[in-house]
Amino acid sequence: MVSYELLVDGDRRSSAETIAVENPATGETVGSVARGDAEDAREAIDAAAAVTDEWGARSPAAYERPLRAVADRIEAEADEIATLLAEETGKCLATAEGEVAESAAQFRYYAGVVDKVRGDTIPTPPNRLNYTRRVPYGVTAHVVPWNYPLLLGTRGIASALATGNTVVAKPPTQAPLTTMWVGEILLDEFPDGVVNVVPGPGSEVGAELASNAGVDAITFTGSTGVGRGVLESAAEHITPVDLELGGKAPSIVLPDADLENAARGVVAGIFSNAGQNCVATSRCLVHESVHDELVEKVVEKTERITLGAGTDPETDMGPVISESAREDVLSYIESAKEQGATLLTGGGVPDEERLADGTFVEPTVFDDVDPSMTVACEEIFGPVLSVITVESTEEAISVANDSPFALAAAIWTDGLEATQLADRLDHGLVAINTFPVSMPQSPWGGNKESGIGREGGLEGVEAFTTVDSVVVEFDEMEDPY
Predict the structure, then answer these.
(1) Which end of the chain is more exposed for a tag (fewer CB within 10 A), N or C?
(2) Tens digits of residue pLDDT in 379-427
(3) Are residues 19 and 152 in the same domain?
């Protein structure tokens, strides 16, 4: 069983209280972290601020070396990190391994970006020179989510460090252990104060990061409701905020789609990570002409899913993160039944004895879902698929866009007009013949109530820098008076 302390100003600090972390598949305690509070967050912010000017003025090589070292160490320790990630979140080991691999890839990608952060030369009359330069914000606060703590946490941390910022990170309370593991690596590889990690409740640590005047930029991944609160807190000091919030991703299946391929993608898109994914394709918008065949394939594949602990190689889907999360998912399932949706499979808690100690929910498929039903409108964050029948491509596009959420969408078609249809979907990420996927070199973020800004790729450079303009006058000034 692992335990971690606060990581502040190059030191490991204990706290009066600790937070126990349980495996949601078994209920067993797998580790603990120190319970930080608002005062700890303030000390971390002060430590980061004290070294911001010196760190931000270093050469690109000073950023590249530690970023590459972090990538190397994550890869060297990948098996152990992935196992711990599967234990603290319940996710399947294969999913955890992929998350760890992409986290290492993100550090390596941004290590290669450090000497490519540049400004522009602006056209001016010959008596002037105007150029821009990208400069780091300074102290950046990172509030990390529990569903993909490494993937989503390290994306922002890596790009912030690559652009000369300092970091204060708050790991997720439900699953902080692997974030702390990587935090230990960062503490070793970067100068004191550059990276600080303070686990603790969002109401204390997160609230302080969002409202403290010493924070120069904030990145938050989580629910839309909490994101609004972060924006309100940041507004007091006009602090820039990058938000990745809720989603209700549609998966559009058109008549010319390869239905076997589409069914695989629809099932993987909603049941991966037990549906606890901001880009989970929880709405399946299927054309009426292929509805029956697609739904038959989806149900057949869903009923083959094996539930279990993420560390068990036979497991296809793990538990949801907590008992309260399970209660929320089950309440959505009941509302769908009450509002007239047809339950095709799942819909409850598995009755197998081996799963009794975990917070499992059966993978669930509803048919005859109306777009106005609660299950089709709100983010469930669980393994529940809503099948919505459409009569035309136009209707599919309309239903897909008729949501306050606009993080991701998927289209399944063999038609050449796929990219034209993608242009009409108001979503930050559109996947064609696959479910939404993340890559270090690709931007990530949502439209409408799904967020503000983009991380990942070269857009991640923009997320953690501001543009300064410099104007040089070559002629002497005339006497103005």
Answers:
(1) C
(2) 999 999 999 999 999 999 999 999 999 999 999 999 888 999 999 999 9
(3) yes
pLDDT reported for residue 477: 87
| Position 438 in a domain | no
Is 214 within the bounds of a domain? yes
Q: Are residues 241 and 256 in the same domain?
A: no
Q: How high is the pLDDT of residue 297?
A: 98
Q: In what order do the strands lie in the sheet with 29-34?
A: 2-4, 29-34, 18-22
Q: What is the mean pLDDT of residues 193-222?
A: 97
Q: How many CB atoms lie within 10 A of CB 407?
A: 27
The total number of structural domains that make up the chain: 2
- Give me 212's structure tokens: 């403290």
Q: Produce one character per residue of 49-59: b if its CB has 16 or more CB atoms within 10 Å, e if not.
A: bebbeebbeee
Residue type at 1 in one-letter notation: M
Write down the mean pLDDT value for the chain: 97
Whether residues 241 and 284 fall in one domain: no
Share of the chain above pLDDT 70, in %: 100
Same-domain check for residues 392 and 307: yes
323-355 tens-digit pLDDT:
999 999 999 999 999 999 999 999 999 999 999
Q: Which residues contact 131 (CB under 8 A, 6 or more apart)?
A: 119, 120, 121, 122, 469, 470
Q: Which domain does 301 fall in, by range?
A: 250-432
Q: Are 175 and 99 within one domain?
A: yes
My answer on whether 143 and 212 are in the same domain is yes
Residue 429 CB-density burial (10 A; 0-12 exposed, 13-18 middle, 19+ buried)? buried
Residues contacting residue 199 through CB under 8 Å, at least 6 positions apart: 4, 6, 19, 33, 34, 35, 36, 170, 171, 173, 176, 179, 180, 205
Q: Domain of 130: which CATH number?
A: 3.40.605.10
* Conformational region of residue 19, where left means phi above 0, alpha means psi within -120 to 50, and beta covers everything else: beta
DSSP bridge partners of 31: 2, 21
Instruction: Please check whether residues 275 and 316 belong to one and the same domain.
Output: yes
Q: Per the domain annotation, does 146 fall within a domain?
A: yes
Provide the annotated active-site residues: 244, 278
What's the longest Cα–Cα distance across the chain?
A: 90
Q: What is the mean pLDDT of residues 418-442?
A: 94
